[in-house]
């Protein structure tokens, strides 16, 4: 069935994205969008660096995929997890090219924030076909500035316990899926680190002896751990979470509440909103959308409506 508004779509596929147990999801997405009447060009490369460079050329109006062409795409569709969201956001934020998601990853936290099906690729593909008949919605993006330059982030930046879990999980080859994150989480709990931070919130510095520091635009990390229960993707503000220094036993007691997003009334938890946040601490690495940003210090600024997305519901 033809769409009312055929679009020129660039589809970027994570080679490890799967549909069901054995079926690759990329061809399913391309087939569904083509049948809907869109002009679809798929890009899949063996490495993230090669994929990023090919996308950069195509989004700039260069050769689209392997079929050639010079027209600027009407949207970038990313197929994969939060890593693909990070890749897509870095390429299209502030360009006016919309981003569309088919979440197939372990966490899919930005998809959760947008109200997209995050655990059912078939439903996500069907919904995407419908969404492309409408208009994209503007949401905020985070601009992170650190030792490795400027990086666009869609969902959130972590620089505490959650970042350490990401660092460990990314070093692990087994198991795959959510279990790897859960094991990394358990191992980091065993060696819980306390960090002395300097956090500057809208120009006001504060010394923080903390366990967890997270700045975000989305509510959750790690596949639904609701660190920032009040975060909204289009309110023009960052949500900041600071968990004070805790013993391992106290943190273990608090963590179930953090996971469920019911920790806001705990006196050891501080939540606030800001336009810019700078985080400094020795020996700590920051992560954005689950991807390594580099060592602290890092400055995070919210850029209102910097990203256009195809989302099913009003985001406010």
UniProtKB/TrEMBL annotation:
<protein>
    <submittedName>
        <fullName>Diacylglycerol kinase</fullName>
    </submittedName>
</protein>
<keyword id="KW-0594">Phospholipid biosynthesis</keyword>
<dbReference type="InterPro" id="IPR016064">
    <property type="entry name" value="NAD/diacylglycerol_kinase_sf"/>
</dbReference>
<dbReference type="InterPro" id="IPR017438">
    <property type="entry name" value="ATP-NAD_kinase_N"/>
</dbReference>
<keyword id="KW-0547">Nucleotide-binding</keyword>
<keyword id="KW-0418">Kinase</keyword>
<dbReference type="InterPro" id="IPR050187">
    <property type="entry name" value="Lipid_Phosphate_FormReg"/>
</dbReference>
<keyword id="KW-0444">Lipid biosynthesis</keyword>
<dbReference type="GO" id="GO:0016301">
    <property type="term" value="F:kinase activity"/>
</dbReference>
<dbReference type="InterPro" id="IPR045540">
    <property type="entry name" value="YegS/DAGK_C"/>
</dbReference>
<keyword id="KW-0443">Lipid metabolism</keyword>
<keyword id="KW-1208">Phospholipid metabolism</keyword>
<keyword id="KW-0067">ATP-binding</keyword>
<dbReference type="Pfam" id="PF00781">
    <property type="entry name" value="DAGK_cat"/>
</dbReference>
<dbReference type="Pfam" id="PF19279">
    <property type="entry name" value="YegS_C"/>
</dbReference>
<keyword id="KW-0808">Transferase</keyword>
<feature type="domain" description="DAGKc">
    <location>
        <begin position="4"/>
        <end position="149"/>
    </location>
</feature>
<dbReference type="InterPro" id="IPR001206">
    <property type="entry name" value="Diacylglycerol_kinase_cat_dom"/>
</dbReference>
<comment type="similarity">
    <text>Belongs to the diacylglycerol/lipid kinase family.</text>
</comment>
């Amino acid at each position: 069935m033809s769409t009312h508004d055929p679009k020129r779509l660039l589809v970027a596929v994570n080679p490890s994205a799967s549909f069901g147990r054995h079926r690759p999801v990329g061809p399913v997405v391309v087939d569904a969008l083509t049948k809907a009447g869109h002009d679809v060009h798929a890009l899949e490369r063996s490495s993230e660096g090669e994929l990023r460079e090919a996308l950069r050329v195509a989004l700039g109006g260069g050769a689209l995929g392997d079929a050639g062409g010079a027209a600027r795409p009407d949207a970038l569709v990313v197929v994969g997890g939060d890593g693909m969201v990070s890749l897509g956001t870095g390429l299209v934020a502030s360009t006016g090219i919309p981003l569309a998601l088919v979440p197939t990853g372990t966490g899919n936290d930005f998809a959760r924030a947008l109200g997209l099906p995050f655990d059912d690729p078939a439903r996500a593909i069907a919904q995407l076909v419908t969404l492309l008949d409408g208009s994209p919605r503007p949401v905020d993006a985070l601009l992170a500035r650190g030792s490795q330059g400027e990086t666009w982030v869609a969902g959130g930046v972590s620089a505490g316990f959650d970042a350490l879990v990401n660092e460990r999980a990314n070093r692990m080859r087994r198991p795959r899926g959510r279990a790897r994150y859960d094991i990394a989480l358990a191992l980091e709990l065993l060696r819980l680190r306390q960090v002395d931070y300097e956090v500057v919130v809208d120009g006001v510095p504060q010394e923080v002896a903390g366990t967890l520091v997270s700045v975000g635009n989305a509510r959750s990390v790690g596949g639904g751990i609701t660190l920032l229960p009040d975060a909204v993707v289009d309110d023009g503000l960052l949500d900041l979470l600071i968990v004070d220094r805790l013993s391992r036993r106290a943190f273990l007691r608090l963590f179930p509440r953090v996971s469920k997003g019911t920790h806001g009334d705990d006196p050891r938890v501080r939540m606030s909103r800001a336009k810019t946040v700078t985080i400094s601490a020795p020996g700590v690495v920051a992560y954005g959308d689950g991807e390594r940003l580099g060592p602290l210090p890092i400055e995070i600024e919210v850029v209102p409506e910097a990203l256009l997305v195809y989302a099913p519901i009003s985001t406010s």
